[in-house]
Amino acid sequence: METKDAVRWFTNRAWSRAGAIAATMASAIPRRALRLGWRVLMLVAGSLLIAVAVAAMLWNSLGPGPLDVFIAGLRESTGISLTLAYWSAFAGMLVLALLLGRRPGPGTVVTPLILGPAVESMLAFVDQFDRPGSILVQVVIQVAAIGVVGVGAGALIVSGLGAGTGELLATAASDRTGRSEPHVRFGFEMGWLVIGVLLGGPIGVGTLIVAGLLGPAVANGHRLVDGLVVGARRVLPAPSEYCASSSA
């Protein structure tokens, strides 16, 4: 092979490799953007579902979960808005988790920012309606709201953008103390409940219903959302197909 032919051969090969790398990168960028978009959508949808359910439990007056008892008590005792009460409570938990050595994910920070104003807005809306007078109807609303919380939490888990603030704090405390995470989480929940009641937060039989059903609801919600996402991936075209169709 002559020198000019060899140079031409190597040049063409280099250009074809560069083109292949560029094509791969071009297809990878939309794929990553699409995947991130789905994860952010799951995060926002999950946060809004939880906000709707919490507002329904507060309106139902049967008693919210332990952490919401604490947040409502913080609001009652300080006079701050419900949004600020949420942000203050979650900020304190986040700082404590950081001090214990756990770093949050982006979803850990974003979710409380959505929850605060969403719960307050939804509660202002449902407060326009009369509360149910039948205890049976109240129990049905409470159980339905817990189910919605489970689906919302499942969406947050599937998004993979960071553990919830409570989970992050419980994991950090478990690492430091050597105690099991469920026991640590139970201790925190009892602490929120006691402090919340002392601050004037609402408590009732609904609080016991939340404590008993929330764990199974989150597990079922996680399975449901994960199954829906897996099914959607099978039905919808792959990101590479979107790239191919857009470039055609």
Describe, in plain words, how this protein is organized in 3D.
With 248 residues, the chain is mainly α. It has one domain. The protein contains 9 helices and no strands.
Question: Could you give the topology of this structure?
Answer:
Layout: H1 3-60, H2 66-78, H3 82-99, H4 106-126, H5 135-159, H6 165-177, H7 181-198, H8 205-235, H9 239-247
Helix pairs in contact: 1-4, 1-5, 1-9, 2-3, 2-7, 3-4, 3-6, 5-8, 6-7
Short description:
This protein has 9 helices and no strands. The protein has one domain (38-247). The protein is mainly α.
Write out key terms for the chains shown.
248 residues, mainly alpha, 9 helices, 83% helix, 0% strand, disordered C terminus
Query: Radius of gyration over alpha carbons?
Result: 24 Å
Q: For the residues shown, what is the average pLDDT?
A: 83
Task: Kindly name the structural category.
Answer: mainly alpha
Count of helical segments?
Answer: 9
Along the chain, the helix and strand elements come as: HHHHHHHHH
* Poorly predicted spans: 18-23, 238-248
- General shape: globular
Provide the number of structural domains: 1
The main sheet comes to: none
